[in-house]
Amino acid sequence: MAASPSPAAAPVPEPALPPTLRRNAPLVPTDSAASRSLAAVIAILTFLAALCAGAAEIVASSADQWRGAVAQEVTIQVRPGPGRDIEADIARADAVAKAEPGIRATRVFSKAEAERLLEPWLGSGLDLSDLPVPRLITLKLADSPAPDLKRLRTALAEALPGVASLDDHALWQQRLSTMATTFVGVGVGIVALVLIATGLAVAFATRGAMAGNREVVEVLHFVGADDDYIARAFQRRFFGLGLRGGAIGAGLALAAFAFAGLMARAWRSGPAGDEIEALFGAFHIGWRGYAAVLLIGVIASVVTGVVSRLTVRRFLA
Amino acid sequence: MVQFENVGMRYGLGPEVLSDVSFRIAPRSFQFLTGPSGAGKTTLLRLILLSVRPTRGLVSVFGEEVSGISSEALTGLRRRMGVVFQDFRLLDHLTTYENVALPLRVQGRAETSYRAEVVELLRWVGLGERMHVLPPLLSGGEKQRAAIARALIARPELLLADEPTGNVDPGLGRRLLRLFVELNKLGTSVIIATHDFGLMDLFPTRRMVLGHGRLQIEE
């Protein structure tokens, strides 16, 4: 120090400082009621966004499971016609299917089984022997070699024109896919909206903090801090708040999914278990879901830091 | 070092606080800025500090005309100045040590690189035992000394002090004045705004007297 009375050239021994001396406290005051409120808002928004992302992930993975199960199987429908021997037609269709390399196994539904499939619509105890009930053959598809369903359809049309048809559930799969994609799209949209809301909340909070810390900013300017340094100080403070809020929100969301998984497991053993399992699968969001939840927590923190920095720069300009 | 030419200053649509003020602060000079309360002393210091811009006239600081100065250049100029505010402007959430170290910290220096000089200066201004205390717990005199230490720590080329001895007893006031004089001998230009004639009589030097917005220089 130039004004110091001690000779400038004398070696300065490392002075003993009080061990409790705080030396590098944040330049922007951190522990205020407004900071806690902002962290709570970020936690709530992160929680909602993470729930949304997790729900979208459950739907997407359940739809994948359903689609996978359905795609493993196709059905040949053989319609009875006047003057035709349906058993012979079935045997012919079965033989055509078995000749296709990608078909792992076939199962012919007997007449009784085919009639039983109609029971949910027509009721039981009816004599359906006079009705032309179509017969079904289910084909299990092999993974390798991949079945050529187009060729099979052509072969069936040539062997049994107008009698046998192949249903590969494409329409149903397409609808399921559209539904799942829509749900995931809505989920992504809601997550984006929640993150935008987080950004706006942070922008307002930063403006409030700048107004509340006007004197701090002024003093920092006078002692030689540039705008970027001040913006970084605010960014550090808000990134810390965002990290805290994001971690709490994401943690709560993970806990909620874990709790829902446990509840679903308990319900599955109950009377409505089959329906719940059919609808939600195992209620398990998988590693992709957990990663999405954690990512949302991180993104919320980053959004908080970046928005606060931009807001401060604009405020100072 | 600082040059004002026909500078006029008014706040908003109010009357001119300063009118046709012209003066020059030479390197290594020492001057008092005096005048009755409300004469415009603080406004003049704020103009030198570049926290307000003149309504008319030319202001040059460290040889740079400041009307169209960039924010980077402004920061560079402020780092060459030290300022002691009348109301101290210590940051209440930082310890005395952190407040005094602030000008070095905002330059991006590591805490270990300036610890020794901050502690030495704190001890010299009599705050060696109070360095861990937050400003609200300091007395008026201690706050004053902390504010002075903060202004001096970065070895400024120009020191501006607004009533720096207003809250201290006469003995400490004299000691602080000696500190400013010693700083001046080491090459820093000093401007002390005060209306304490007792203090000014202790060190006969150039006086810049403001009255009714006009400046008169007594060499």
Automatic annotation (TrEMBL), chain A:
<dbReference type="InterPro" id="IPR004513">
    <property type="entry name" value="FtsX"/>
</dbReference>
<dbReference type="GO" id="GO:0051301">
    <property type="term" value="P:cell division"/>
</dbReference>
<feature type="transmembrane region" description="Helical">
    <location>
        <begin position="183"/>
        <end position="205"/>
    </location>
</feature>
<keyword id="KW-0812">Transmembrane</keyword>
<dbReference type="GO" id="GO:0032153">
    <property type="term" value="C:cell division site"/>
</dbReference>
<dbReference type="GO" id="GO:0016020">
    <property type="term" value="C:membrane"/>
</dbReference>
<feature type="compositionally biased region" description="Pro residues">
    <location>
        <begin position="8"/>
        <end position="18"/>
    </location>
</feature>
<protein>
    <submittedName>
        <fullName>Cell division protein FtsX</fullName>
    </submittedName>
</protein>
<keyword id="KW-0131">Cell cycle</keyword>
<feature type="transmembrane region" description="Helical">
    <location>
        <begin position="287"/>
        <end position="307"/>
    </location>
</feature>
<keyword id="KW-0472">Membrane</keyword>
<feature type="transmembrane region" description="Helical">
    <location>
        <begin position="38"/>
        <end position="60"/>
    </location>
</feature>
<keyword id="KW-0132">Cell division</keyword>
<keyword id="KW-1133">Transmembrane helix</keyword>
<feature type="transmembrane region" description="Helical">
    <location>
        <begin position="241"/>
        <end position="267"/>
    </location>
</feature>
<feature type="region of interest" description="Disordered">
    <location>
        <begin position="1"/>
        <end position="24"/>
    </location>
</feature>
TrEMBL record, chain B:
<comment type="similarity">
    <text>Belongs to the ABC transporter superfamily.</text>
</comment>
<keyword id="KW-0067">ATP-binding</keyword>
<keyword id="KW-0132">Cell division</keyword>
<dbReference type="InterPro" id="IPR027417">
    <property type="entry name" value="P-loop_NTPase"/>
</dbReference>
<dbReference type="GO" id="GO:0016887">
    <property type="term" value="F:ATP hydrolysis activity"/>
</dbReference>
<dbReference type="InterPro" id="IPR003593">
    <property type="entry name" value="AAA+_ATPase"/>
</dbReference>
<keyword id="KW-0547">Nucleotide-binding</keyword>
<comment type="subunit">
    <text>Homodimer. Forms a membrane-associated complex with FtsX.</text>
</comment>
<dbReference type="InterPro" id="IPR003439">
    <property type="entry name" value="ABC_transporter-like_ATP-bd"/>
</dbReference>
<comment type="function">
    <text>Part of the ABC transporter FtsEX involved in cellular division. Important for assembly or stability of the septal ring.</text>
</comment>
<dbReference type="GO" id="GO:0022857">
    <property type="term" value="F:transmembrane transporter activity"/>
</dbReference>
<dbReference type="GO" id="GO:0005524">
    <property type="term" value="F:ATP binding"/>
</dbReference>
<protein>
    <recommendedName>
        <fullName>Cell division ATP-binding protein FtsE</fullName>
    </recommendedName>
</protein>
<keyword id="KW-0131">Cell cycle</keyword>
<keyword id="KW-0472">Membrane</keyword>
<dbReference type="InterPro" id="IPR005286">
    <property type="entry name" value="Cell_div_FtsE"/>
</dbReference>
<dbReference type="InterPro" id="IPR015854">
    <property type="entry name" value="ABC_transpr_LolD-like"/>
</dbReference>
<dbReference type="GO" id="GO:0051301">
    <property type="term" value="P:cell division"/>
</dbReference>
<dbReference type="Pfam" id="PF00005">
    <property type="entry name" value="ABC_tran"/>
</dbReference>
<keyword id="KW-1003">Cell membrane</keyword>
<dbReference type="InterPro" id="IPR017871">
    <property type="entry name" value="ABC_transporter-like_CS"/>
</dbReference>
<feature type="domain" description="ABC transporter">
    <location>
        <begin position="2"/>
        <end position="219"/>
    </location>
</feature>
